[in-house]
Amino acid sequence: MVLAMTLIGFAAGSLPLSLWLGRLALGVDIRDYGPDRNPGAGNVWRAGGPALGITAAVLDIAKAAVPIAVARLALGVSGWALLPVALAPILGHDFSPLLRFEGGKGVAATFGAWLALGGPLAMLGLAVCFGIFYALRVPDAWTDVGGVTLFGLGLVVTGAATVLVTVAIAALGLLTWTNRAELREAPRPQLRSR
Length: 194
Hints:
Layout: H1 2-13, H2 17-26, H3 41-48, H4 50-74, H5 82-94, H6 107-135, H7 140-157, H8 162-178
């Protein structure tokens, strides 16, 4: 069951919903609207505005949250068995076979994973952590990495289950990898483009 839900989660995560939404609603390849050729919700926002960008983010959050929630709530997957299930949609988003094993940064998929793992409060906590770095006006890549780092530290301080801390560490590793080019520059305050 865990293997099946991991594969289903990876398959769901690999669906480039933001890219498809951009093609369907705007008739464009949204990867052309950002400096990183990212097929994610941020570039849908740049190409089509806030309403379409929010729609894309919700879709990318849902494609991660749904398979994890089904595994956790309907099938009773828990403990360490949850680790591959929780990471699978993020991995699918980051390394989509439908995009020649390229993909997005995994931010929305990470939010979806935490929505399924800890409910709306966990997702809100993650959003607050990202918001702190966003308010400091650091580049997007540093906001992504800093937000998950701060969230993970919060999990440790509050005594969260080790498997949840491990999910946060793995998500941090994935975000570091997908943002590696931008992380080569020091985090300086900048004007926002999102």
